[in-house]
Design a protein that fits this description.
The chain has 106 residues and is α+β, with helices and mostly antiparallel strands. The chain is built from three helices and four strands. It has a single domain, classed as Alpha-Beta Plaits. Helix content is 47%, strand content 27%.
Length: 106
């Protein structure tokens, strides 16, 4: 199953746009995106093929750490790791659409 794993690390200094771009380049091979410019942290969302959510997180943590090193960022602790599947994302989209339609009908 394919998982989208979101990881967030926080530290003690502001991250520059150039550093986020370097992280984005490093995770792009894994269908990833990066964020964090102007904040005291950085993050990435990575696509992982894994049998379950726990293994997806473990695999993405290794990829994330390597990408952080490649980008030249400091290795800060990961404070949050969250997974979603494509099915969960579609369910969320449909639920939001139903809620929006219900609100419009009132």
């Amino acid at each position: 199953m394919q998982y989208s794993v979101s990881l967030i690390a926080e530290g003690d200094r502001e991250i520059t746009l150039e550093e986020v771009v370097a992280l984005a380049d490093a995770v792009a091979i894994h269908g990833g995106i990066a964020s964090g410019a102007g904040t005291f942290g950085y993050g990435a969302q990575i696509l992982i093929e894994a049998p379950n959510s726990d293994i997806a997180v473990d695999m993405s943590l290794e990829i994330f750490e390597n990408a952080v090193k490649t980008a030249g960022l400091p290795l800060w602790p990961v404070l949050k790791a969250e997974t979603t599947t494509e099915d969960e994302e579609w369910e969320s989209i449909f639920q939001e659409a139903e809620n929006d339609l219900g609100a419009q009908e009132q």
